[in-house]
Fold this sequence. Notes:
By secondary structure, the protein is an alpha+beta fold. The chain has 15 helices and 7 strands. It has helices at residues 4-21, 33-43, 48-61, 65-69, 73-80, 87-102, 111-115, 122-133, 142-151, 161-174, 180-193, 212-215, 281-296, 341-344, 369-382; strands at residues 232-241, 251-255, 266-267, 270-272, 299-312, 316-328, 354-357. It starts with a helix and ends with a helix.
Amino acid sequence: MYSTEQKLHFSTNLLEWYGRHKRDLPWRRSKNPYYIWISEVMLQQTRVDTVIPYFHRFVEQFPTVEALATAPEEQVLKAWEGLGYYSRARNLQSAVREVHERYDGIVPQTKEEVSSLKGVGPYTSGAILSIAYNKPEPAVDGNVMRVLSRYFLIEEDIMKPSTRTVMEKLARELILEGTASDFNQALMELGAMVCTPRSPHCLTCPVMAHCSGREAGMEEALPIKKKAKPPRPELRAVALIEGTGENAGKWLIRQRPQEGLLAKMWELPHVTWALDSWQSEAENQEELRSLLAEQEQIVIQPEGWFMDTEHIFSHIVWKMKVYRARLLPASGQGPRAGANSSEAAGDSWVPFHYRWVGPEDLGDYAFPNVFVRIMREWQEQGE
């Protein structure tokens, strides 16, 4: 289907270009499969510039398979805080624990074994095996599919599994013997730096001469990708509950359920809005007070609007209104049995999954980034 000349031109020129122009990235300074694995998980749906400081901190904190396998999950989530898609961190730790227990802490070198690890799909397994172990396995992500679509003029929807299968077969055929590690990194690098989603830099592309997409004038139309549904909006009202007395300068936070979205992470108390639109600010605050009393058995006194913000997931976007509030005693309730000292000295009884925390405590809890922003905004306005 594709000529030997075209494929050979692509592979040889790409490798030569990569040797001269590759970026100095921290995970490229070692063939450590554990480090490469961490970087690939972090880079999923996240920019390189964002990942670099996280990578440095993460491998400093968890320098070995054993260190990550034996770390408390809360500590791992805290190290991941701000990167988002927290299931990546949980799956990574689960898989690393399996490596620690089943493979004596050595990342396996076969496709079957690596692919069986939790959260490791075809791309990640291909990246680990090729980059760390120089195995001739394809590592096909969005960057790679864009490059191959353009160079070989592939007009199939890249969201279809059948198209990915074609791409993986083609990518495998392009790997010259003994070059898998450099070739796959070169392919990713070309997609990130030259064959970009918009306005590709064709004139500086090392494989421009035989690019079928450019010759057909379709370089910006490719790849073909069916548009995903936009994230659906959800309205949520947030209570920024400020402590008094011994808890002055603190906020009331709660832990999310053990399963599901953002599992086990900490957040400011909030409620999902049952209505299609916001009401007046007074009505919003009364509804927030009522729902928290009904759903969480905590009684608050809202004290005015604080800010609007949002938190974007792949499938939903939280549209959030934040209201300052203080906690009122719940009728007939005192500090719960076994409460820690901060709870016992608190403004009133709170459920077991709530805590009073101050700015100095934030490093001990893993939060979705939106709640960190809210609390920092509160701090800045108070200075």
